Amino acid sequence: QEEKKQLTLKVEELERKLESTSAQNIEFLQVIAKREESIHQCQLRLEEKSRECSSLARQLEMAIEDAKKQVEQARERAVSRERAAQSKVLDLETQLSRNKTELNQLHRCKDDAERRYESRLQDLRDRLEQSESTNRSMQNYVQFLKSSYDNVF
């Protein structure tokens, strides 16, 4: 009877351990499910950021092309006006003065456009760098989670 009692106690203790282990397994499975969902959400955000980066790159290319066209158009207009002024220089000294003033205004406009373009370009670069930094952070976090999962199992 004493042996039976001892064995019964051992069986009960093993059953408690089994229940505890089962509960831990359920908790681990829940943690894993939450982490997998978190990884999935991170992947979705990463894909969204990638699309956003692509869109920003396209916008940047379009802005560069537009700025080049505007600069070229302004340059062509300035050259055209300068040639017209040179043909009239002997007869119309006042006209030359007005044309030089207009040319200076065009240069200021061009400089202003270039400064705005540089500012916008720098802003886009900063946003791209921030996005890339976020992507790297997400990738590092995903790598951390993977290694954590590997360590857990």
From TrEMBL:
Domain of life where this protein originates: Eukaryota
Main location: other
Keyword Magnesium tagged: no
High-level lineage: Eukaryota, Metazoa, Chordata, Craniata, Vertebrata
Entry keyword set: Cell projection, Cilium, Coiled coil, Cytoplasm, Cytoskeleton, Developmental protein, Differentiation, Flagellum, Microtubule, Spermatogenesis
Family (UniProt): Belongs to the ODF2 family.
Regions annotated as coiled coil: 4-84, 114-141
Organism: Loxia curvirostra (Red crossbill)
InterPro entries on file: Odf2-rel
GO biological process: cell differentiation; regulation of cilium assembly; spermatogenesis
Subcellular location: Cell projection, Cilium, Flagellum; Cytoplasm, Cytoskeleton, Microtubule organizing center, Centrosome, Centriole; Cytoplasm, Cytoskeleton, Spindle pole
Protein name, as recorded: Outer dense fiber protein 2
GO CC field: centriole; centrosome; microtubule; motile cilium; spindle pole
